[in-house]
User: What shape does this take?
Amino acid sequence: MLRNYLTLGAIGLIWGSQFVFQERALDDLPPVIVSTGRALIGALFIILLCRLLGLKGRPLHSWKTYHLVGFLEATLPFFSLAWGQQFLTTAETSILMGAAPFFAIMLSPLIVAGARIHVTGLLSVLLGFAGLLVLFAPDIMRGLDIGLAGGLAVLVSAASFAIAVLMLKRLSHEHPLLLARNIISAACLQLLLLSAVVLPFSDQPVHWSAAAAGSVIYIGATASGLAYFLYAALTRAAGPVFASLSNYLVPLVGVVMATAFNHENITFTTWVALFTIMAAIGINQIGNRPQTEAGKAE
Assistant: This one.
């Protein structure tokens, strides 16, 4: 039991800390390089891990499926997250990414056969939406500006990631690490192609400082590599509902690290948005519990 909680804390720390390191990388590198670099490092990390564990997948029956899920789970979220964070604080970015569970609730009936939105799910979505309005309130009052556009880009990342997670249910027959290897490898190829197309026309300077390179390596090896392994292990040991508790930790860790390391002045509306969204995730978690226990009883 203690090991499960330690693993859960490690996942929350890794995924919550990525925003601080990504901000440092974006100081010297354009978003397309940051997103491509983390995908490349993550793919290499998981491929090496699979080899060390002796995991050998069966012949890939459908690269089209892996490329589609890879685009939704990594290619689009990595790039739009990096682009959007240029115009947001680290705290705001981490809170917005905490909205992924709400998109999963709203979109599950369209993607997962037999899925329905229950009362607790609807309440959590409404409360989470209220939290997002609180967070966006200052930008909304100023009118549509680049800060609001950046926030919407991060929400696109959260929505895309949620859709990919729902689609993964169709690939549940694969080993989690082999599945992660195939998906992140497909996304890596897509982002390398995107970089080859975009960079020649980009006027944004590229400066490979030690801080930028180290940040990309850290994000790739941990947030796009190690965390996948820990999440897969925790899901197998304690179940998907327990593993999903990491949704609480990501925005909270992101805000705490933004305060501690970036010395960001967290506004009152940001704190209200954080705890509103965390409460919304809690309501959804309560709604999931009886359904999970019933599933175990079967």
About this structure: Residues 29 and 206 are 5 Å apart (CA to CA).
